[in-house]
Amino acid sequence: MAAILNSAVYQRLSQNPEIVEVAAPDPREMPEMPAVPMDHFLITTRKIVGTMDVVTCFAVCCQGSRKDGETILGLAHSSIYPIHFVQGVLIEGMLKKGCEESTIKTYVVGGLLPTEEEPTSCLDQEREVIEQAERSSIVGARFNVVKNPDEGLSVLFTPNLIRISKVDLFRQTGTRGIDL
Residue 95: in which H helix or E strand, if any? Predict the structure, then answer.
C-alpha cells in the first residue's frame, strides 16, 4: 500500500485542489437531493449530484462540457466493477449527451484504509487508478479517507469541485441512477 500512496502519480492526483475533504456542513445549507446508490451511475446536466456510504467501494466522478458550454456530470458508486469499466460507462454516456471528449476530467475517491481483517481491501482498485491515470482522463484521486469499515464517505459533486466527508453532505430524498 505504501508504494501506491507514495508513488509520484498518486501524489499528483491526491493534490488536485478540486477534491476537498470537509467537516460537518451547516444543516441549513445541506441540499436535498437523491443519492446515486451503490453499483449505479447517473449522467446529468444538474449542477450537483452525490452518493453516500462509500467505504470499500469507490465513487467515480466525470465532468465535461458540450460545445455550448453546458456542463455534464457523471457519477458512479461502484463496489464490484473495475475503475476503467466504470469510467468507460460514464464517458460513453456523457458523449451520447453531446459532451466533447477533450473536456472530460475524471476523479476517483474512496477505498478503506487497509485493516488487519482486510489488509488488501482496496489495493487492486487503487493500483488500477494509478496505472490508468497516465493514459486516461483521471486527474484527481483520494484514497483511504475512511479508516473504519463502520464509517461511510459522503461525496457531493459539483462542476469543478468534489466535496468528501465522513458525515452526510446532503439530505437524501431517495435514490436515482441506472444499474452499472
Answer: helix 83-96
Cα 7 to Cα 170: distance, rounded to the nearest angstrom? 33
∠ CA(52), CA(102), CA(128), 5° rounding?
A: 50
What global pTM score does this model have? 0.90
20-59: per-residue pLDDT in tens? 999 888 877 888 899 999 999 999 999 999 999 998 889 9
For 58-105, write each residue's pLDDT tens digit: 999 999 999 999 999 999 999 889 889 999 999 999 999 999 999 999
- The pLDDT, as a whole number, for residue 54 is 92
DSSP state of 143: E
Reading the block at residue 175, the C-alpha cell is 435514490
What CA–CA distance (Å, rounded) separates 147 from 111?
Answer: 9
Phi-psi region of 31 (alpha: psi -120 to 50; beta: other; left: phi over 0): beta
**Nearest by Cα to 88 from 72, 70, 104:** 104
The maximal CA–CA distance of the chain, rounded, in angstroms, is 51
H helix or E strand, kind and range, residue 172: strand 171-175
